[in-house]
Amino acid sequence: MTAPRSVDFWEALRFWLKLGFISFGGPAGQIAVMHRELVEHKRWISEQRFLHALNYCMLLPGPEAQQLATYIGWLLHRTWGGVIAGVLFVLPSLLVLIGLSWVYVVWGQVAWVAGLLYGIKPAVAALVLQAVLRIGSKTLRSPGQAPLLWAIALASFVALAGLAVPFPAVVLVAALVGWAGGRWAPAQFARAGGGHASAATTAAHGPAVIDDHTPTPEHARFSRSRSLRVLLGGAVLWALPMGALVAWQGWSGTLAAMGWFFTKAALLTFGGAYAVLPYVYQGAVVEHGWLLGPQMIDGLALGETTPGPLIMVVAFVAFLGGWGQQVLGPDALFLGAALAAVVVTWFTFLPSFIFILAGGPLVESTHGKLHFTAPLTAITAAVVGVIASLALFFLAHVAYPAGMAAGWQHPDWAALVLVALAAVALIRFKQGVVRVIVACALAGWALRSLYGVGV
Fold this sequence. Notes:
The chain has helices at 9-22, 26-41, 47-58, 64-107, 111-139, 147-161, 167-184, 186-189, 199-205, 224-249, 254-266, 273-287, 293-304, 313-325, 333-366, 370-399, 413-428, 433-451. It is mainly alpha-helical. It has one domain (9-451). Helix 10 packs antiparallel against helix 15 (333-366). The longest helix has 44 residues, at 64-107. The protein is globular. It starts with 8 loop residues before the first helix and ends with a helix.
């Protein structure tokens, strides 16, 4: 079988739209779908080039699956190809989450909805525990091989869970330790290899449009002037809406504050959405009061059950913040909340597009060089501790939904049993995320409706 010489733009657009609606299962599932469709079935890109692109995206802050789609779209059809691929990866999730968020704020206290949410929260806590194990097993290796990475993970856990150190400070210190470790203990910070192209794949499916030895397209080669133009364009696309929001409602207005806060969050998402959630919690719940802690868990649950990157939970956070702050007045609660969700999505994902369109070729030139990857390896190790602190936070809210007023001796045992069962299903029996959440939701409804548990 001979691959076509190029990919039709409209065919690619249809695929990216389809991907936006079927991209369930978190980054691992989304990347697996893209690998199956683009590498094995359509043969738009070879396995080696696909893994090479994935390695770039893993080194950047932001949702790696969305960035990978943007990267491949850019490689195939220049800037507009990347923009369309990245936007369509996010747009269906945004629309679905706006709808679910509206249902949540209007009917979230209805008995049967509350019962479903009672069961979903333990499933979310189990998902975070699974993330600790998954990322930790890939990053930390054994304590004997990389004790410094284990020390970084433990220190980040203590810093966040016990000392309330700001998340950006944890990331900065981890990067500095990684920079120093890359010079004086390089073996502990070396990344595992990314693998080689599969000759079997090529033999079975024929050459790809962008094959192992296809020259890098001219538009994807590093050019200082081109990168500066992209950076300038990105700065304008950030400054114009931010300026409009500040002129409209002032710098302390809810929408401007959301835009600024989630711009910072977008630059700190090393290790995926779970890693940045503690930072989002500190800002959205503690500092600004846009929503409550238990609502944050509900939002993560809704994000897990919708297509698109998990970081789209920020749309839920913004919707509830926009609704509660009445950003367009009390007579336009839905429109104001939806506008807040759109604003936050813009400022959260804009950096990802800039990273790919301007920095992709630059990252390629530094790939595999230890002085560049060691700080990122240290950040990933810190992310393990960060997610562990998030797991502790979620478990505490599941066990004591009303706080510690009743005393630590009286946790919600039914909810903790659901956490344990969900964790076993996810980790031991490798059940899918949606299946586990649905099962826990039904169990929560039954426990609450039939037996009055958790009321």
